[in-house]
Automatic annotation (TrEMBL):
Organism of origin: Mesorhizobium escarrei
Domain of life of the source: Bacteria
Pfam families reported in the protein's UniProt record: BPD_transp_2 (PF02653)
CDD domains in alphabetical order: TM_PBP1_transp_AraH_like
Places the protein is found: Cell membrane
Protein name as catalogued: Inner-membrane translocator
């Protein structure tokens, strides 16, 4: 009987230690998360005080306009992370999205320069973007290659095709659609800013307001349970990569409108896209990617770059800060996963 009592006491002691460890990890996660949000707030407060014109209406609208391209790309990346899971090494990711945008921009600008109208040029850009997304889906879902490696390979394919098409030169473009995106406005808000607003509302409604979006979260968070419930996991994962390609195509039209041309070097946006998509998890209650969180992180990155510019700080610092933010978010999500698994 005494052995039974000792065994029960040992079991209770182990359970108490496990409970204490889980509580400690959850507390550490909360501290890190609140610390991150406090740091963001402190940075914004600093810009409000020391950056001239930071809070002016004109400047804030300008930030939204400048964030349109990053926002559309970040939504594509977020959808892939939602559908494929947020594990950094094996989960969903699309490293080719920025290069895909560059290829779509080259196709769009080249067709315009050849005399084709907006309709055909836009259609071609969207087709190319979704085709690259389908190639990613084939590599990840069909061939079973890790998303990190598959999309890295497709990145090089898209970048090579862009350079082949443009011969590494700037391709100028002009059209009624581009003129509208550059100079059009409604209620004092530019067409580019409206593009981000409308696109954000649409994708948030689809992902967070429909049964399809709920199933997408189920596939990314618990693929085995989703498969047991009768959901086609390959279809949903493939859909996210094609959607990411569509977002790249839309962003390509926006970037051509801003620059009046297709220019090499679109791949440099990848770090910003990753930072925006991953940073969005900080604004989520359960540390999962959300479209609303991505929108907040996109605006934060836009305000960060804008604040540095107003303070005459080199833009190179923005890349360093974005890299630090990615490390921070990975640390936070690792804490969160550890807390969930220890329950």
């Amino acid at each position: 009987m005494s052995a039974t009592i000792l065994h029960a006491e040992a079991g209770a002691s182990d359970e108490a230690r496990a409970t204490g460890k889980s509580a400690g990890r959850r507390f550490a996660t909360l501290v890190v998360r609140l610390g991150a949000i406090a740091a963001f707030a402190a940075i914004m407060a600093y810009f409000v005080v020391f950056a001239p014109g930071f809070t002016s209406t004109f400047n804030l609208i300008n930030v939204v306009e400048q964030s349109a391209i990053l926002g559309v790309l970040a939504y594509g990346m977020t959808s892939v992370i939602i559908g494929g899971g947020s594990d950094v090494t094996e989960g969903g990711i699309d490293l080719s999205i920025a290069a895909n945008m560059g290829l779509c921009a080259a196709v769009y600008a080249t067709l315009l320069s050849m005399g084709y109208g907006d309709f055909l040029s836009v259609l071609a850009a969207i087709t190319v973007g979704m085709a690259v997304g389908a190639l990613n889906a084939l590599a990840v879902v069909g061939l079973g290659i890790l998303p990190l490696l598959a999309t890295l390979a497709v990145l090089n394919v898209a970048a090579g095709m862009e350079l082949t098409l443009t011969q590494n030169t700037v391709v100028g473009a002009s059209s009624p659609l581009l003129a509208f995106l550059v100079s059009g406005s409604f209620l004092g808000i530019s067409a580019l800013a409206w593009a981000l607003i409308v696109f954000s509302a649409t994708i948030i409604a689809i992902i967070h307001g429909t049964a399809f979006g709920l199933r997408l979260y189920a596939v990314g968070g618990h693929p085995e349970a989703a498969r047991a419930a009768g959901l086609s996991v390959p279809f949903y994962v493939s859909f996210t990569y094609v959607l990411s390609g569509f977002c790249a195509a839309v962003a390509s039209i926006l970037t051509v409108s801003r620059l009046s041309a297709s220019t090499p070097g679109s791949g440099e946006l990848l770090l910003s896209v990753l930072a925006a998509a991953l940073l969005g998890t900080v604004f989520s209650r359960r540390f999962v990617p959300t479209m609303g969180g991505t929108l907040l992180s996109v605006l934060f990155i836009g305000l960060l770059a804008n604040g540095f510019q107003l303070l005459n700080v080199s833009s190179y610092w923005v890349n360093g800060v974005q890299g630090a933010l990615i490390l921070l978010v990975v640390a936070i999500t690792s804490f969160a996963r550890g807390s969930e698994s220890s329950r």
